[in-house]
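Researcher: We plan to redesign the surface later, but first we want a full-length starting point. Tokens attached.
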């Protein structure tokens, strides 16, 4: 890909950068689509981030920034505008400069997960959902499900403070959604989501009792170490429809492109062009 004096930069900010996957997806697409832009990994330690972010956006050819760990939470205090989804998630993974110079942020982990469900025919409106894991990704998924019209959100996490805080944010921003906490029995739910790291290592316990999931339910996963985790294989054997972890990665990029004002594409096209290794363990 050619870089010249008109190339726009999307900074990929995090630390460390060795596991970053976004450049291996965005840049092949930019090249194929003839978009004069490039995603550049920038290794920024946490202590330098508050000073760097506003200075970075003083550069006229910086179109935006992808934000990943350890900055997804701390970036909130540096922004002028946040979407409801980012406020509920308590994290942000995309920043752009508005025409008036203010910085705006959004969160697309959950958007990618929900878009994947919807494109598979799952009706999010009115759905009864269980999300196990209330960390950054789980909070984002819960926020996006609420925004997509879920009727009920049951939340579980071993960290009770985290799940209670998430539940309170959801009730404040999405009062129409029924939010409950403290149980992870999947019986009776239309959608069951594993948003924990369980499944990253061989022999990990399953996040819920799969035998309690209704055979007609939909089961989703965020772990990307393998295409189908033990949890998904068990759910599929029970007759459930499933969504693999990497679907979230590819489905979140089209709304990212829209956020930055670039021509968008499909998850299928991104998969076709991506130069990812065989396994993907970390998302953008």
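Model: Full-length starting sequence:
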């Amino acid at each position: 890909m050619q870089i010249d004096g008109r190339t726009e930069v999307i900074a990929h900010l995090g630390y460390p950068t060795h596991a970053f996957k976004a450049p291996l997806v965005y840049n092949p697409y930019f090249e194929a689509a003839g978009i004069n832009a490039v995603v550049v990994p920038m290794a920024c330690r946490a202590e330098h981030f508050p000073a760097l972010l506003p200075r970075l956006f003083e550069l006229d050819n910086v179109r935006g920034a992808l934000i990943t760990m350890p900055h997804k939470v701390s970036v909130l205090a540096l922004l002028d505008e946040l979407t409801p989804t980012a406020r509920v998630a308590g994290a942000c993974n995309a920043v752009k400069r508005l025409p008036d110079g203010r910085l705006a942020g959004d969160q697309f982990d959950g958007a990618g997960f929900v878009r994947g469900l919807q494109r598979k025919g799952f009706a999010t409106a009115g759905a009864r959902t269980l999300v196990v894991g209330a960390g950054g990704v789980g909070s984002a998924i819960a926020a996006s499900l609420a925004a997509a019209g879920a009727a009920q959100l049951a939340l579980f996490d071993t960290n009770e403070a985290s799940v209670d805080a998430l539940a309170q944010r959801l009730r404040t921003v999405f009062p129409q959604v029924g939010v409950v906490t403290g149980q992870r029995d999947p019986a009776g739910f239309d959608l069951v989501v594993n948003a924990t790291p369980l499944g990253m290592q061989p022999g990990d316990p399953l996040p819920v009792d799969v035998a309690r999931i209704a055979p007609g339910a939909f089961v989703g996963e965020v772990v990307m170490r393998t295409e189908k985790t033990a949890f998904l294989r068990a759910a599929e054997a029970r007759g459930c429809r499933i969504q693999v972890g990497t679907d979230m990665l590819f489905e979140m990029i089209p709304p990212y492109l829209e956020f930055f004002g670039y021509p968008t594409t499909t998850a299928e096209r991104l998969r076709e062009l991506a130069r990812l290794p065989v396994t993907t363990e970390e998302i953008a």
